[in-house]
């Protein structure tokens, strides 16, 4: 999704703009950001602009996951709580069970995204690789996550 936003792909931009009104900001995990961040000025500018409307959980300097409300600043417990040992083991187990497409290798970042979505419940994952993400979600038995291809 971040690459699609950086490339100004219409569907990605439309989806991202639609999320700006949601109470919970779009979540970009630190490892996902690491996979796409490169020192190219146009890429950095485009991704940084998109990140203003997102949260990077547990990253200092990132916007809070929930937008301010009339009653104050609510907090998303899933975004403020780091994965525990059992979560990391669950991710590893999912990688071992994931029925990935041929010639694909298990990706810990995909499994982390899948677990984060599953923990949030009723989540939507915007991805350019829906087959890998679906395999991770299935391995985690995540029932309440929707995938949208960008």
In terms of structural class, how would the helical and strand content be classed?
mainly alpha
Distance between the termini: 6 Å
Strand order, biggest sheet?
1-2
Q: Count the strands?
A: 4
Low-confidence stretches: none
Order of helices and strands: HHEHHEHHHEHE
Task: Tell me what portion of residues adopts beta-strand conformation.
Answer: 5-15%
Fraction in helix: 40-55%
Rounded average pLDDT: 95
Given the C-alpha coordinates, what overall shape results? globular
Gyration radius, rounded: 15 Å
Number of helices: 8
The major pleated sheet works out as: 2 strands, parallel
Description:
- 49% of the residues lie in helices and 9% in strands.
- It is built from eight helices and four strands, in the order ααβααβαααβαβ.
- It has helices at 2-6, 10-19, 30-36, 41-51, 77-80, 85-97, 108-120, 130-139; strands at residues 26-27, 54-55, 123-127, 145-149.
- A two-stranded parallel ribbon has the order 1-2. Strands 3-4 form a two-stranded parallel sheet.
- Helix 8 links the parallel strand 3 and strand 4 (145-149).
- The relative contact order is 0.14.
């Amino acid at each position: 999704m971040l690459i699609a936003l950086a490339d100004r792909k219409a569907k990605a931009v439309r989806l991202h703009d639609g999320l700006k009104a949601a109470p919970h900001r779009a979540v970009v995990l630190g490892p996902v950001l690491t996979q796409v961040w490169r020192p190219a000025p146009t890429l950095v500018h485009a991704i940084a602009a998109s990140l203003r409307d997102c949260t990077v959980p547990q990253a200092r300097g990132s916007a809070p996951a929930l937008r301010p409300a009339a009653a104050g600043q609510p907090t998303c417990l899933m975004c403020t709580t780091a994965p525990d040992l059992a979560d990391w083991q669950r991710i590893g187990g999912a990688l071992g069970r994931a029925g990935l497409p041929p010639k694909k290798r298990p990706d810990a970042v995909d499994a982390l995204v899948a677990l984060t979505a599953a923990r949030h419940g009723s989540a939507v994952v915007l991805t350019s690789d829906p087959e890998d993400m679906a395999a991770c979600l299935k391995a985690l038995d995540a029932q309440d996550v929707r995938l949208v291809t960008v």
